[in-house]
Amino acid sequence: MPRTTDGDGTPVPQRLLAAATRLFAEQGYDRTSVQEIVEAAGVTKGALYHYFGSKDDLLHEVYARVLRIQQERLDAFADADAPVEERLRGAAADVVVTTIDNLDDASIFFRSMHHLSPEKLKQVRAERRRYHERFRALVEEGQKKGVFSTATPADLVVDYHFGSVHHLSTWYRPGGPLTPQQVADHLADLLLRALRP
């Protein structure tokens, strides 16, 4: 059985994911070998295959771990006892901040998702759809209550916001003129202004 941690206590799966993320970001998914990943993580191929069935599984997990965090946080915003506009604004800003905090992961995924197996791609699309549907439900709730305009369909509002989020990896740079929270606040405000009755 492979060791689960190294000398500093970092679990092997986390080390493998960190190494894969760095290498995929630097040289691309298709130009990164399994051997390079295990060498960078300081483990054997046996250890990799103990935790991940393939390089494809690593790519899937790079994105899935971010999406899990975002889903948990969205659920917390959606379930909070607060006015719908506060909950939507919080969720809209949060997805921007968590995407920027995991920019390599998001960038790798959108550049490389076509490398996933059809089964994994279907799974990721289902996970993203669940996220988008929960987000859309907040928009629809506000529209039903008359807090948000119904002039634009909720689906289009959601696509508009997530188009901005998915585009972050192409232009956002750490150390630029805006902090992650400032970008998040601006994009959330744009969304809320678009929904104003």
UniProtKB/TrEMBL annotation:
DNA-binding region of this protein: 33-52
Keyword Repressor among UniProt keywords: yes
Keyword DNA-binding recorded: yes
Top-level taxon of the source organism: Bacteria
Residues in HTH tetR-type domain copies: 10-70
SUPFAM superfamilies registered for this protein in UniProt: Homeodomain-like, Tetracyclin repressor-like, C-terminal domain
Keywords: DNA-binding, Repressor, Transcription, Transcription regulation
Protein name: TetR/AcrR family transcriptional regulator
